[in-house]
Amino acid sequence: MKIGIVLGTRPEIIKLAPVIEEVEARSLDRFIVHTNQHYDWEMDAQFFEELELPPADLNLGVGSGSHGEQTAKMLAAIEKAIVEQELTHVVVQGDTNSGLAGALAGAKLLRRVAHVEAGLRSYDMRMPEELNRRLIDHLAHDLFPPTETAHGILTGESVPGQVHDPTGNTIVDAVLRYSPHRDVPIGEREPFILLTLHRPENVDHEPTLRAILNAVGEVAADSDLDVTFPAHPRTRGRLEQFGMALPPRVEFAPLKSFRDLLALQATARLVMTDSGGLQEESCVLGSPCVVLRTHTDRPETVDVGASRLAGVEREGIVAASEEMLAVRRAAWDQPFGDGSSSRAIIDLLLASGTAPVLSASD
Ligand code: UD1
Asked: Could you say which DSSP state residue 188 is in?
């Protein structure tokens, strides 16, 4: 048995770190492939250092590009690595192009493909991530849904692989290990709002980006709070391209380490984001969150009252922010598990054996 672990972007590095740690703790034979979809120090190497990850065994150096170009380069190189390294398993996480390339290469070579964080759906087919995750779920042999909702989605779609019982989300393992604070009482928080934006459907479309930023500026003025905005490189690029200035009280900040971003989330009065990862993290940390999207693939955070789906228009954003700023006690149920997801995932993976699942026609 030799487990290939494919990752390439900031969220995959963070969410697979506890899984890699578990693999290392058991001294399993493994081979880490880093596609280098993310390559800036702030988006990549910083997290390997901070999370004390072993260096990747192979770095593909793929970088940025169109979806087809990026995915194709990864696919060819991962296929070669699987054959050369005689990998029996390929583990991918989430919904990125790196994850899709890993799953497709592994499935075509009849290796056992495992999908960590399986079964999420936004039902928004404009999102590249929605396409990726659907395809990965239908290619994978071992599916690890984080929640009952995700589990129900996978069984409802009759995916051919084995849908394991909900494992929780590995983000909880990572947050509990790295967060300096949790459940900071609202009255003791710093007077600021944390903003992140990176989804292409928000930032690549000028009127949407403008509407979101103006609404955030209005919330800042109404609530008398400053907004800290560690902007993703994609977003900075678009703002420059559109010649768009930030509204008063909204200020750029440098990209943060994982620990620093958790500290900001834990001490902010409000988190405003279009990131699924921050939506989960703020829920675990006990911080009210406004989701700057029209659909969410993490409905659990809305259901427990940790976040509010605001949409991307002024009225929705202002109303959701008012509501979440009025939350005085952030004591909601935790939908993503207790921090033991990685252990559960590796236990299940080891129990599943190495043979790929065969379809009825085989
Ligand atoms: C990708 C994932 C998304 C994930 C996000 C986390 C896909 C389809 N999307 O989106 O699901 O939530 O990562 O950040 O896989 N760039 C840099 N430096 C970097 C990386 C990117 O400058 O290190 C810039 C480049 O201009 C690039 C753009 O950001 O073209 C977008 O990067 P890309 O990897 O295509 O997608 P993300 O938007 O980061």
From this structure: G
